[in-house]
Amino acid sequence: MKAKPAAAPRPSRARARARSTSIAAFVVLAALVPTTASASGTQEVEAELPYVCALPSGQLPATVRVAAEFPARAEVGEAFTPSGVTTTVELPEEAVTDLAGHGADGVRAATRLDVGVAQNAATARAAWRGGAEPVALPESGPLTLVTRGDVPSVAGRGDGDLTFSAGSLAIDLTLAAADGTAPGTETADSGSGSESGSGSGSGSGSLTVDCALAEDAPGQGLLATVPVGTGTGAPSGSPSPSGPAGTSGAPDDAQPDGGGDRQPERQSERSPKVLENTPGTAPDRDDVPPCRYDEQHPPTDVSLNAYVTGYANVKKLKGAAYLPPSCVLIEQGVPVPGPPDPNYLIFDTVSYANFHYQERRQTPPFEATFLSFDFAPVKATMVLEQTDTMRIDSRMKMSMTDFSTTTDTYVRAPLVLHVLDLEVNGTSLDVGSGCRTETSLVSEDPDPANFPGDHLVLYGRGELLIGQPATGYLLLSGGVLAGEATIPAFTGCGTDGEDLDRLLTASVSGPGNLIKQVQGQTCAIAAPVFPSPTNEGQCTEDLQPYEIPVAEH
């Protein structure tokens, strides 16, 4: 069912060779990634809301459309996660002129939407984050930015409607100049108007646009309502999150609305917390490959190691493949001053990394087993192999006013996909020893002039406010990195005159494949932090990463 929030009449304020080897191979490749069936009992929400955004030239109107799927209803204590969340921002033509005036020819957008979650008198806040691939600035008309991402889970702890409402929106824009370069940084502040938003001049490499919900937004930004429980009983609690403790995506001191005659400490107990969604559990250490330096790879004073895991979509097959925890050895670079900015201290750091599995620069082999078209069980074994060293570029910006920091990180990884084995109904199909993609997985690079060639690009942003835990991705503490890749054509697949290249290419290769990787906390070899009553621990006693991360969809 499709539900659009209606405008509330209130004062102004708002997604075996059976007959021949060739036929079997086609079946195999069509099932390398499973499809996820649509959940029943859902409501599809499409809300269109007016916003006012602060750009260097001043306050400009914008239209924001939020689409997502929510359950039609939920039981008390049942955690659920809004799915298919898409945020579409339409900035007016004046904004395009602003960006072009800063030397930009295109932009890559990341959005942070503040969402209020309420049940009865209790409230919480969640950050809905999304990312997008680069888009070119239009020659005329508005600029449309479409971002997608995962959002925190939530549960109602009592009977009553659980409501979700959109609040402030921040749009982080990475600017690409017409010549392919990406210099400088700048921030537009919604509270400062056009003067302070003008920043340090043209040629900026990034811009943060702060947007506020317009006063006439329908329903004060209402996105969705999810009935919880019977809907008639007295409230027994506030919304509660799902996920592990200590990963809160909202301040812990949030207070519920409405005072009544409750005591302050009671209000604090009822204060909801919305946690970042971390589904699943970490594998046992015995089930992951070792991750340590050795005589062939001796550590230095700046050596780090960490595990990474995640999922990779295959768009043609409408599903995702699980990439198991893999060891990465990292040599952290030395920060150097970045471009001058009167409002920020900027430092750039270049680090380098390699997968490390049995003395090879690759992931461990990973298997996937599926039932293809209700026809036959299929198993594929694959690895991702490096063709060169991975490069990690990080830019940290520290505000001169509140000392908050943001860090944008790009990981550039030349990786080919190597198919080792295929089986259909227990019968092996010989793909040969050289079955792989012709080139690395390919992403559109935001700075192609300085980083030519075929490689995967993953992006993450970390934020740190004084007195609060870091959120997002930072090289040392880890987090989520995401990107989009084209899977190239396959080559070298098949033996004994059987050429399977075209079949693999037709079934799997193509653009628009989303990749989401989670890096765990690093272990600093030269200054290890071991678990103790006062420390969570970053290294095991034999200097392996203490944390084994959990993949996120």
Task: Describe it.
With 553 residues, this protein is mostly beta strands. The chain has five helices and 29 strands. The strands form four sheets. Strands 1, 2, 3, 4, 5, 6, 7, 8, 9, 10, 11 and 12 form a twelve-stranded mixed β-sheet that branches. Strands 13, 14, 15, 16, 19, 20, 24, 25, 26, 28 and 29 form an eleven-stranded antiparallel β-sheet that branches. Residues 1-40, 178-204, 231-273, 275-279 and 370-376 have low confidence and may be disordered.
Question: What labels would you give this structure?
Answer:
single chain, 553 residues, mainly beta, 12-stranded mixed beta sheet, 11-stranded antiparallel beta sheet, 5 helices, globular, disordered N terminus
* Separation, N- and C-terminal Cα atoms: 24 Å
Task: Give the fraction of residues assigned to helices.
Answer: under 10%
Rough shape?
Answer: globular
Strand content: 35-45%
> Mean pLDDT, as a whole number?
77
| Largest sheet geometry | 12 strands, mixed
pLDDT < 50 runs, ≥5 residues: 1-40, 178-204, 231-273, 275-279, 370-376
Multimerization state: single chain
> Structural class, judged by helices and strands?
mainly beta
Helix count? 5
Alpha carbon gyration radius: 25 Å
* Record field, number of beta strands: 29
Short description, anyone?
This protein has 553 residues and is mainly beta. 7% of the residues lie in helices and 42% in strands.
